[in-house]
């Protein structure tokens, strides 16, 4: 039985409300209790949940997203699998009436609405395994368009996964395409002004130009907020000293830098806080499946950001080796474009210049960047009651995030998690 | 850890438990001085004497009834059937008395006893010596049905059977008896209802039972060369059945084949298939397949006998097809 979906009444006095978003697509299976619609009324956005598991069918000529309608306006239907929405039945009748107008006058009029119980079968589309169907729903893949790769012709999980991967790749490609020229041009190109002084083109001018474009695009399009916190880095300091000691004894050359250690622990923290591992796109927030950490490196050509791939899954030694190679290539100027693409988060370190807190600029299309300050010995209060103090290695962390993509509280929680990771490295070393 | 054959490992369990617990005694045809048709009691008669290794006439119903009475009154009988096909003559005692008595007495009577015998098609033994009856017995509440496949498991599970209060049917496949394998030292037991992952893999799950576990492992070796990783599961007991381990494996692989020498209709494979169909439906990426022995009395002719059970080659081919489906 098709169930009508109407604009709900969101308050005693509400007379109308706005469709903010359909969180489920037309034809998608909605589980009982799942949110399928966001509606805005009286300045608050309300999540509308489904009371039953059914397929969402939107009225083809119904109100659009952003439209404000009266309470009780019909928006669509919930139907059972194989069932037609009422508007479809009407459409079919209309089509039938058009295509077969020459019904003999004495034909029983009921014959036109004779429902064929198996008519829906042909419309069910390709066969799909239960597993593939589940994964398709989980990943939001429209399997009706897929073809099965197996000998049975049935769509299997691998087909769905491949489709999902292709979709993600396409999205990421869009996101990572060089910043849209018109925007950049708009932002940085001032109204044609007479040149004040003719400067000699410096080496690495192209890099500088790109940096300029990217930075101003970031500064002008994001809604940056910077949070700072002071952390006790004594344990991380000890950890690195221990690794250094070991390396010296065993003659190993690659010792992880603080940047390497932070790359790993930040990547692990990002996996717990995927909201920060995201990008803003025209279609909304895109959360990245992978966690790649960009490392800001100062070179003669200017600032470059080589990217460490999935440091969460790598040992510190492996990260140290890879990072050393990347940094060397960045400084020598023979780093490839690929090695600087696909980052999902960036770390920048000004600690060596005695900087504590600062306001790093987000490396678009990423949503946040972490600035590392200098590590400095300070007297800190260990126990207020007994007035016990100690000398600890303290450092300031500065997290700039794009408020369009994520709100302050989740960003603060992410920074807090990093603080915990720095202060108690066993939390992530035991992963 | 030592290397023992399946037969010797089972005999060690019996010997050690008999030494530990004077209530245990063995009955059967030719299990005394002769030491058992399959050497199951070799040397024990000399050690424990004619009362505890009690030769019987050919009267299965009689001595199973006797053993049921002995178990009710505090002994722990082990009946050794040689070929387990002869157990069928005692079905009334087994199903109506042995399996039901604990329930009928509200648990006042216990039924600690073990019925053991050899199963399986092989060695041109013809149709009266080739049956595998785990499916029939697994259909009866009150019985525990174990099908150990390795020397270590048969020793540990036989021990568990001899220390429990329930009637246990222990089925030993003829073609596994001379297999050698590592057996842990010391007093260990192996629980019932806990499947063993005999080989880990990610593309398809093969559940064997008795000899087909070994055949599945060999098929998995062949398929590994083609890059197909088969997860082989040995349920070890068909009642209780550890469906959780099988479900977990199917969650990983999405594909399931049950390989069983015995007859297919209403069999072990049907049970596993139904449970996975119910509880693992959304994990299935392909229909569940079964590969079983032919639904026919077992022929004597060796070439025909080979033909009616799933061979390693047929198992490998079927698993390969299932992965591509």
Word description of this protein:
The complex is a heterodimer of chains A (about 425) and B (about 325). Chain A is elongated. Chain A has helices at about 85-100, 120, 130-140, 155-175, 180-190, 205-220, 235-250, 260-270, 315-330, 410-425, 425-430; strands at about 5, 15-20, 30, 35-40, 45-50, 55-60, 70, 75-80, 225-230, 280, 285, 295, 295-300, 300-305, 305-310, 345-350, 370, 375-385, 390-400. By secondary structure, chain A is an alpha+beta fold. In chain A, strands 9, 12, 15, 16, 17, 18 and 19 form a seven-stranded mixed beta sheet that branches. Chain B is α/β, with parallel strands linked by helices and about 325 residues long. Chain B has twelve helices and 14 strands. Chain B has helices at about 5-20, 45-50, 60-70, 90-100, 100-105, 135-140, 150-165, 210-225, 245-255, 270-280, 300-310, 310-325; strands spanning about 1-5, 25-30, 55, 75-85, 115-120, 145, 165-175, 180-185, 195-200, 205, 230-235, 235-240, 255-260, 290. The radius of gyration of chain B is 20 Å and the shape is globular. Classes of the chains: A alpha+beta (about 425), B alpha/beta (about 325).
State the secondary-structure class of chain B. alpha/beta
- Which parts of chain B are unreliable, with pLDDT below 50 for 5 consecutive residues or more? none
Helix content of chain A: 25-40%
The figure for the number of domains of chain B is: 2
CATH superfamily of the largest domain in chain B: Thiamin diphosphate (ThDP)-binding fold, Pyr/PP domains
Percentage of residues in DSSP E strands of chain B: 15-25%
The major beta sheet of chain A can be summarized as: 7 strands, mixed
- Please state the second-level CATH architecture of the largest domain in chain B: 3-Layer(aba) Sandwich
What is the CATH architecture term of the largest domain in chain A? 2-Layer Sandwich
> Largest interface, with Cβ-Cβ < 8 Å?
A-B, 12 and 10 residues
Q: How many separate helices of chain A?
A: 11
The CATH class of the largest domain in chain A is identified as: Alpha Beta
Order of helices and strands of chain B: EHEHEHEHHEHEHEEEEHEEHEHEHH
C-alpha Rg of chain B (nearest Å):
20 Å
Number of domains of chain A: 3
Q: Would you report the number of β strands of chain A?
A: 19
Largest sheet of chain B: 7 strands, mixed
Number of helices of chain B: 12
The fraction of residues assigned to DSSP E strands of chain A is: 15-25%
């Amino acid at each position: 039985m098709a169930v009508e979906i109407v604009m709900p009444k969101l308050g005693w006095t509400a007379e109308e409300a706005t469709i903010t978003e359909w969180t489920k697509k037309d034809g998608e299976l909605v589980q009982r209790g799942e949110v399928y619609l966001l509606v805005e009324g009286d300045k608050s956005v309300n999540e509308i949940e489904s009371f039953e598991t059914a397929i969402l069918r939107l009225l083809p000529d119904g109100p659009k997203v952003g439209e404000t309608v009266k309470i009780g306006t019909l928006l669509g239907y919930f139907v059972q699998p194989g069932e037609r929405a009422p508007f479809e039945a009407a459409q079919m009748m209309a089509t039938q009436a058009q295509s077969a107008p020459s019904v003999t006058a004495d034909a029983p009029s009921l014959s036109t609405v004779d429902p064929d119980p198996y008519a829906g079968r042909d419309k069910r589309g390709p066969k799909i395994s239960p597993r593939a169907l589940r994964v398709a729903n989980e990943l939001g893949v429209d399997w009706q368009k897929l073809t099965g790769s197996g000998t049975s012709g049935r769509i299997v999980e691998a087909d769905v996964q491949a489709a999902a991967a292709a979709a993600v790749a396409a999205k990421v490609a869009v996101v990572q395409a060089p910043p849209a020229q018109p925007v950049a041009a708009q932002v940085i190109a001032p109204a044609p002004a007479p040149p004040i002084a003719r400067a000699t083109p410096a080496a690495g001018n192209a890099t500088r130009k790109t940096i300029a474009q990217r930075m101003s695009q970031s500064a002008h399009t994001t809604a940056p907020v910077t949070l700072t916190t002071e952390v006790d880095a004594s344990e991380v300091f000890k950890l690195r000293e221990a690794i250094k000691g070991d390396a010296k004894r065993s003659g190993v050359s690659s010792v992880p830098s603080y940047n390497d250690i932070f790359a790993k622990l930040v990547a692990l923290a990002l996996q717990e806080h995927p909201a920060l591992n995201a990008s803003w796109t025209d279609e909304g927030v895109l959360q990245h499946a992978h966690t790649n950490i960009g490392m800001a490196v100062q070179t003669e050509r200017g600032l470059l950001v080589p990217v460490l791939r999935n440091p969460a899954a790598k040992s510190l030694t492996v990260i140290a080796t890879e990072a050393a190679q990347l940094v060397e290539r960045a400084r020598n100027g023979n780093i490839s474009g690929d090695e600087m693409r696909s980052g999902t988060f960036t770390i920048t370190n000004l600690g060596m210049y005695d900087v504590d807190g600062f306001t790093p600029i987000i490396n678009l299309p990423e949503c946040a960047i972490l600035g590392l300050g200098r590590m400095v010995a300070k007297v800190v209060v260990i126990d207020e009651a007994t007035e016990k103090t100690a000398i600890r290695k303290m450092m300031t962390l500065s997290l700039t995030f794009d408020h369009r993509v994520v709100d302050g509280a989740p960003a603060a929680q992410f920074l807090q998690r990093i603080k915990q990771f720095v202060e108690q490295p066993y939390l992530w070393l035991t992963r | 850890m030592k290397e023992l054959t399946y037969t010797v490992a089972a005999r060690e369990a019996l010997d050690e438990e008999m030494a530990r617990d004077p209530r245990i005694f063995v009955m059967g045809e030719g299990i005394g001085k002769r030491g058992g048709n399959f050497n199951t009691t070799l040397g024990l008669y000399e050690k424990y004497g004619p009362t505890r290794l009690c030769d019987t006439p050919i009267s299965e119903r009689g001595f199973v009834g006797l053993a049921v009475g002995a178990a009710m009154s505090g002994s722990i009988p082990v009946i050794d059937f040689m070929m387990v096909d002869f157990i069928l003559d005692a079905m009334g005692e087994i199903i109506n008395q042995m399996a039901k008595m604990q329930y009928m007495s509200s648990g006042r009577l216990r039924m600690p006893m073990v019925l053991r015998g050899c199963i399986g098609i092989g060695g041109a033994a013809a149709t009266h010596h080739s049956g595998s009856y785990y499916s029939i017995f697994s259909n009866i509440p009150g019985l525990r049905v174990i099908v150990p496949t390795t020397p270590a498991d048969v020793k540990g599970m036989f021990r568990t059977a001899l220390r429990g209060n329930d009637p246990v049917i222990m089925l030993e496949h003829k073609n596994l008896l001379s297999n050698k394998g590592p057996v842990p030292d010391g007093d260990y037991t192996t629980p019932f209802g806990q499947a063993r992952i005999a080989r880990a893999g990610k593309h398809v799950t093969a559940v064997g039972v008795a000899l087909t576990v070994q055949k599945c492992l060999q098929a998995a070796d062949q398929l590994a060369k083609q890059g197909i990783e088969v997860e082989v599961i040995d349920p070890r007991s068909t009642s209780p059945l550890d469906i959780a381990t099988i479900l977990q494996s199917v969650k990983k692989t999405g594909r399931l084949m049950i390989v069983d020498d015995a007859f297919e209709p209403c069999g072990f494979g049907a049970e596993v298939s139904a449970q996975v169909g119910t509880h693992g439906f959304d994990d299935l990426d392909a229909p569940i397949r079964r590969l079983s022995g032919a639904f026919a009395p077992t022929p004597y002719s060796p070439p025909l006998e080979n033909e009616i059970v799933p061979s390693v080659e047929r198992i490998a081919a079927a698993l390969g097809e299932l992965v591509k489906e």
